[in-house]
Structure formats: structure tokens, C-alpha cells
Amino acid sequence: MTAQRLDGLAIAQQIKDEVAREVAALAERGIRPGLAAILVGTNPASRVYVNSKVKTCGELGIYSEKHELPETTTTEALLHLIARLNAREEIDGILVQLPLPRHIDTQRVLDAVDPAKDVDGFHPVNVGKLMVGEPGFVPCTPAGIIELIRHTGIELKGKKAVVVGRSNIVGKPVALLLLAQHCTVTICHSRTVDLPAECRQADVLVAAVGRPEMIKGDWIKPGAVVIDVGINRVDNRLVGDVEFESAQRVAGHITPVPGGVGPMTIAMLMKNTLYAASSRA
Ligand code: NDP
Asked: Which class for 141: exposed (0-12), middle (13-18), buried (19 or more C-beta within 10 A)?
């Protein structure tokens, strides 16, 4: 048996087509969604992500602007910029590309973004809404993961989901979303005692670790849905957190890296920006 591949590129394209249609409908009412992306420093991966987000905005008819700041930028200067963007009506979404340089107080920066413009869903107000199940901005990667799983057609209710990783960006929010879908959720991390045994229980396995090919095929329950969030550069190629070759022989569905979760993240950012602009309308 070979697992069915979950084609993130194709599913993301469907979402972007839908966003483009709705952007065009908003334009008839005189509204153009606007996204401001802030990039601090010279991290090459961050630069690639921001450029890709800005480019996608252009393709969908969303206005965007890129604020590139030097590595030496202070927390205060960043807070100043965010205050200005918060005040501008034509900016619906503000995204601060993470990670920020170490001398910057990341949490203070995220707290400064107007929750109504927090299209990354990292402001504590939106984090809290996700926790209590109120509508708000949901972080893009976790939202994209749920969308990918939805495309398998598999009913999540009652399934055992295992999330490896407990970051605020991926692990914790995706665990909450799976819980909201009535999964029984286990969150694993670096102190988990027997990770292979935990993974073998999973009907849905989400790997968000950042360790190349750590999760092996024989850790996977036959027929499981395997979502590989990891993006690791090894010898100039990208690999996930799951050992794809062995895993695809056991899983029922699996995401490739690249072409799985990555494109979904950007598509969901576009959707969140549209949603922010619709609220303005
Ligand atoms: P973090 O580094 O913030 O978190 C990694 C998590 O993995 C931590 O909770 C850590 O545990 C856990 N972990 C580390 N080592 C082990 C281990 N040996 N066994 C079990 N758990 C372990 O990473 P992110 O969540 O930000 O990102 C994870 C991966 O996803 C990265 O490769 C990143 O590049 C990728 N990513 C991809 C995105 C996309 O769009 N496709 C978007 C965001 C991230 P502990 O908490 O105990 O330290």
C-alpha cells in the first residue's frame, strides 16, 4: 500500500482562487484588502517567506507593503511602526515575520498588533478566543493543517490525534483545533518518554518538530493521516520531520515536503487578510 499524497499546492490554489473572487467582489464596493509585512534582519528563510506572501497578495488583488528593517532595530522602533500601521485604515492585516532578532521583545511586539489586524493569530486576544472557541484569527499553519485533513474526507470525531511539538505557532494551536473537531488529542514534546509508542496510537499524526526525518515509518499506525509541518534544509534540499520513504508505505494519507503544509500557510494568510477586510466593509 502507498499512502495518498495530500497535495497542498493544489488545495492552496483552490483557496487562493476563492479569495481572489471575493477580493474582486469587495473591490466593487470600493474596498481593497491590505497587508503590511514586517521583516527584521537578514534571516534568509524569513526573507523568502515574506517575499512569497507579498507576491501572493499581488496575484490575488490584495494590496501589500513590505517593511524591511535592519537587524539592529529596537523593540521601541518596531512598536512605533506597528502603532502607525494599526492607525491606517487601508491596512487590514499586519504580520511580523518570526523569529525576530534575539534582542527584540517578541511578545511585546505581538501584543502591540491590533487584534482586529492580527492575521497571524498570535495576539493573546486571538489566542484566548481559540482557547475558548470564539471566532477570531486562527494561526495560518494550524488552520491550513485542518483544511488539508478536511480534504481527506475522514471524519475526525473520536479519532486519536497526536501532535509532536508544542510551539505557540504550530503545536499548541493545532492541538486546540483538533480538540475542537472532537479528536482525543495528545501533545508530545522533547520530554515525552516514549515518542514512538505515542505516535503509533495516532489516527492523525502532526509532526511539528524541526528535526529532519525524525519520525520513522514504523512509528506510524497503518492507514494514519500524517501531516508533516517540518521544513528542514539538509544538503541543499528540503526535508520534513517525517521519513517520507518509509512513512508513505504505512500511512493512509501523507503530506509531501515541500508542497504540503507550506503552501497552505500562505493561502490561509490570504484568507485571514480577506476576512479582516470584510470586517472593515
Ligand atoms: P519550535 O522549535 O518552536 O518547536 C519545536 C517543538 O518540537 C518543541 O515543542 C520541542 O519540544 C519539540 N521537540 C524538539 N525536539 C524533539 C524531540 N527530539 N522529540 C520530541 N519533540 C521534540 O518549532 P515550530 O513549531 O516553530 O516549527 C516546527 C517545524 O515546522 C520547523 O521545521 C519549522 O520550520 C516548521 N514550520 C513550518 C511551517 C510551514 O508553513 N510549513 C510554519 C511554521 C513552522 P520542547 O517544547 O520540549 O522544546
From this structure: buried
- pLDDT per residue over 81-111, tens digit each? 999 999 999 999 999 999 999 999 999 999 9
Active site residue 53: yes
pTM: 0.98
* Orientation angle between helical segments 8-28 and 261-280, nearest 10 degrees: 20
97 in catalytic set: yes
- Ligand 1 centroid – CA 208 distance (Å): 5
Q: Do residues 145 and 152 lie in contact, with contact meaning Cβ atoms separated by under 8 Å?
A: no
Residue 241: active-site member: no
- The closest alpha carbon to 62, from 98, 13, 21, 96, belongs to 21
From the CA of 167, how far away is ligand 1's center (Å)? 6
Structure confidence by residue, pLDDT tens digits, 223-246: 999 999 999 999 999 999 999 999
Distance separating alpha carbons of residues 86 and 92, to the nearest angstrom: 9
Q: What share of the chain is helix, strand, coil (3-state, %, to 5)?
A: 45, 15, 40
